[in-house]
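User: I'm preparing a small set of examples for a lab meeting where we compare how different chains pack in three dimensions. I only have the primary sequence for this one, and I'd like the structure in token form so I can line it up with the others. Please keep the answer compact; I'll paste it straight into my notes.
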Amino acid sequence: MEKTKDKIATIILYVISGFVILLLVAFISYILIKGGSSLTPSFIFGNPKFTEAGGGIGPQLFNSFYLLVITLIITIPIGVGAGIYLAEYARKGKILNIIRLSIETMAALPSIVVGLFGLVVFVQMAKWGYSLIAGALAITILNLSSMTRVCENAIRVASLGVKESSLGLGATKWQTIKKVILPMAMPQILTGIILASGRIFGEAAALIYTAGMSASPLNFSNISFIDKASPFAITRSTETLAVYIWKINSEGMLPDATKVANGASAVLVIMILLFNFTARILGKKLHESYTGKI
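Assistant: Understood. Below is the structure token output for the 294-residue chain.
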């Protein structure tokens, strides 16, 4: 009887897993089929004779990657640091309860609310205007709770069995965290980074109110983090690919807006898939190098 129940439960889990995979494959296939005809160099990089995407989606694609880099530079140190504190240093009490309540509350915040908060604080009060740094900070608020929880769980699991051994051999607590626990927790932490990256690529609501909806031509000969004419400036308005897809669908300014949106969506999905696969391969290599498997 118990074996029969176990087989039935196993079959049900396999069916659910297969349905999830099938749903993902169908979703990705639909987007790629609808937008596949637009995936040309002219569509991505621009061409004076090509008007379907207003000259190409190259600026929006670059803005998405650049926003990803800036946001991860802010999110990763804070998320990993918070995870280390909660897993290794925090003591049970009112302060810890307040921290966990704050993390749970941040995780439940709608992106549109975070966008309005960023509009008031970063755009208006800080007087940064619609800028890349304002958008990066808004996305950081959205991602910080999940990043912190992933890092905390990864560090807590990785420390089992090795923490006492390292301390017993004479290593300090920080040496144990830095040299033993963090390398073992790296694959799980990288998973959190991948999840955060997907949120950055696909987010639009929060960026509309903070990063803006204008994409100027890119002049890579001008390298500056302050001059708004430079593509690397964190103070310039930054229209990402997700925001661009929303804008052309909502405004209807282009005669072939549907085709452009389908093509831009296909590019966005391909970029996310490439990033996920690359990040997982890199994470595996890092884990093997830290654990001495190479």
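A couple of notes for your slides: The CA atoms of residues 179 and 290 lie 9 Å apart. The chain is about 70% helix and 0% strand.

User: Perfect, thanks.
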